[in-house]
Queue: 3 jobs
Job 1
Amino acid sequence: MSLAKVRIVLVGTTHPGNIGAAARAMHTMGLSRLYLVNPARFPCAEATARASGADELLAQAEICTSLPQAIAGCRMVFGLSARSRNISWPALDARACGALTVQEALEGEVAIVFGREHSGLSNIELDHCHYWVHIPSNPAYSSLNLAAAVQVMAYEVRMAAMAGASPPARRPTESPPASVDEVEGFFQHLEQTLIEIGFLNPSNPKLLMRRLRRLFFRAHLEIREVNILRGILTAAQDKVKG
């Protein structure tokens, strides 16, 4: 089963007990790679107590200062959200996410990202995710505890892995797929260039950049394609400066 390349990323967790319970949920389903982005309290005895034997996951957890750091090197990122958004984003339910996670993990690192207990992931954090994932639940009461959401997703990933998966079908390529950090570097370069040529309002770039992110995420850029695009951007910048 291709579970060794699956990261569970918890962003801004405020209650250490939820970290421990999430580690327990992961351990029961064979997941072992826990990343924590700016946890309010960790390490913590309460996290260890709630882990109920999954102490090793806590000891090996990666502590990160930003979401880009936690997902660096990944080929695909999924973001969990129970809230509706003003702008549409490619969406999957939990089962489809589990299947696609296992497929993609056959070829590289994959991350499933969970937000804060009270507010979830911000739109800016979701900008780093290829897909928005929701867990179908009672529409009259759709709020899931953080550790419960981790348990649901860990279960779906395990079931998909046990069923077996083939690597995702890809068109013939000339170079490997670009990682999320390589694509993020391109997005930063793109935003700066669009500002310099006067196409993007520097005081409010988020909406247009969010739509451009969706466009390029759908393209599944290769490393060579990222290099070509960045070369075009550099040429445009030089033209403006010259």
Job 2
Amino acid sequence: MLKIEDLHVEVEGKEVLHGVSLHIREGETHVLMGPNGSGKTTLLRTIMGFSGYKVTKGKIIFKGRDVTNIPLHERARYGMGIMFQRPPTISGLKLGKLLYATSGSTNENIDKYAAQMKMSGFLQRDVNAGFSGGEIKRSEVLQLMIQQPDFVMLDEPESGVDLENISLIGHSIARLVEKDRHIINRHKSGLVITHTGYILDYIEADAGHMLCDGEIKCHGNPREILKVIQEKGYQECIRCQKI
């Protein structure tokens, strides 16, 4: 699904990622952890193709295509989707209009998914305008449900969300990355940034990675990595990797 090979990325002239390599197979969901400022969000935004993230070395291969220099909208067309940690407010654009334009779905489908995410009353409101933290996250998940990407990236989906919303969001994210039972051999994949690990209660994570100072320092079982981080901090992961 995704191969990142020796990726070096600059932001405003400063190198933030230093030789990141990551392989995610079809049907796998990987979890990315790391301290603030380690480059996690930079990695996701670079994979998605946002401007301001300059790849100086390395490649991003998505479903067999080299997309390193392909614009964001083409990557979305190929099947990439992203959930932001702090998405922008878009004044003048109604959520329902955005959903329809993104997918070309019928209003019936949009209404069905909006009801599932408890967002029916938000379709005629400007995107994220006056939304609470939980409402913003539900809106982001709703957009991905409509888009139905083959590969979904989630930047701290549980951040700023109460327990009631995390259950709804967690179960919905699990459906986003599960195998599509109606299409033979079609598996969806994901890459999830988490600090708290709450999302691991809802998704089946196949692998975990710890990113620090722009480099992936270790790979392994995501729950084991998270346990070490919670008990001993990120430095213990780095020390262990060096032994």
Job 3
Amino acid sequence: MPRRLPPLTTLPAFDAAARHLSFTKAAAELHVTHGAVSRAIRNLEEQLGSRLFERGTRSVQLTSVGAAYAAEIGAALDRIGAATIAATAPKSAGVLNVSTSDGFAGRWLVPRLHRFHRANRDIDVRLSTSGTFSDFIRDGIDIAIRYGAGGYEGVTSEFLAEEEVSPVCSPELLQGEYALRTPDDLRHHRLIHDNFRIDWATWLRAAGLDDINPSNGVRYESAAYAVEAAVQGEGVLLGRSALVSADLAAGRLVRPFDLTLKSRWNYYVVYPNGALRQRKVRTFRDWLFREMAAG
């Protein structure tokens, strides 16, 4: 007996709208117009003979039928995505596409990657360091290291490491006329900024210093460049633990003060559901956890 199926082209629009509870956000995710999402869902409702959304002036809500349907369709699309990954894996068995930020890539991942390649000569890692979250299927990404709050929808995410922040600088700044000995000595040094969520204003407030200008200094869009500036003695950076660990271990950077702040965001390993069935993804995932545990 043939399957009774809805118009399959309508399902991605419905799934995205159900997850976001927004036709506009669904359109942005799918790179189509708001009207295209609206038409797809209207077509689906007509085929089902049931209303899936309650449409308000500025928002939409799932009906009881829509909520039940969304749970099943979302799970089905996850299974289709996993099956697609598994089906295409043999064509690119030796290539692993990894997505992460440029800061994490430059200061943590790349300096360690030679160890992965040495142990897994049949897997070639290709890094994508876009500033935005990659779409696993559309962008061909196998696994990602993301910095955020976790709980990413439609994928598997595993906690990798927490993030702590503290001032770091070149050992040179611990010497000389304005040697860094107490937080108050920061008034004599350039502050280095990157686009991190804990900024110098937050740290100086925690240190009880309200007479140092937190906007003083130089700003870098790239966290990797900010760390390198600190290594070169350009000033004092609020160092993110994962990004400065290698430089601290090698003595290129030091922590002049003890005050450390914990970030509300952490690092997560993220991959499509079912992706660990591929040896290359499973191998890289396991290696990430071993490297992070080793420090």
